[in-house]
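At this stage, I wrote out one protein's amino acid sequence and its backbone structure tokens, and that material follows here:
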Amino acid sequence: DEGRQVRAALRAAVRPEVLPLSFAQRRLWFLHRLEGPSATYNMPMALHLTGELDVHALQAALHDVVDRHETLRTSFPEVDGVPTQRVLNADEARIELHVRDVDRDRLDEEVGREARFAFDLGVEMPLRASLLVVTDGGTRTDEHVLLLVLHHIAGDGWSLAPLSRDLGTAYAARVRGREPGWAPLPVQYADYTLWQNELLGDKDDPDSLFASEIGYWARTLRGLPEQITLPVDRPYPAIASYEGDVLGFQWDAELHRGLVELARSTGTSLFMVLQAGLATLL
């Protein structure tokens, strides 16, 4: 109840069509405007499904999930030169499930192509759903690949688990002809955004937390080189291509346990420990 009251108070203080962005969203919005629509910050999740699939129930379940999470039905238009987020009403946020047959030999190629979809964040929702029906020699099989492409402005790695969990819950209900029946979320991402902007204050106010944070990082980063001085085997490109690769490796349980204990003893996350180690190495 308290969370809902705080949420209502914050929302009442702004016009719904000009909700501010969080600072993480601002960074991604800037990069989107800088390079234009691209797949650089896409987060694809491919689910391999076997057995009988109720496509109509899956479509309904996608609507349920988009209805539940405002961030999935948010676009980011400019209003008077300022980036804003516009949360669509559930009845106007209709996500289409793109269904088509794909031969097994071309499956990886098609998944890759779909994953590179370029969102126009100013007008489009940051989620795209495709269902690839696997075929063998033109004959449909009982295999499908459900590909969800989420733009990073609407989620992160932690978001994929609740996204897939809620979709599974909604699909199980829709197959039985029911609605999911879950309780409404007390807080949405836009509420966090409003709280963050309220907490940090005005960047032009020298006494604000925003000014204090910016001042700290300006002092900390002052004098650092624009590029690391490690020798590389080829010149840096003038324009980033983002054509990277993934190299896999493993750590043993003892090293992982030590890293977790170090993070716990220093009040940090495992990511922060690894980031500090990588930064020190570079």
Notes: The longest strand covers residues 139-151. Strands lie at 42-50, 74-75, 78-79, 82-83, 86-87, 97-103, 127-136, 139-151. Residues 216 and 237 are 31 Å apart (CA to CA). The longest helix spans residues 160-175.
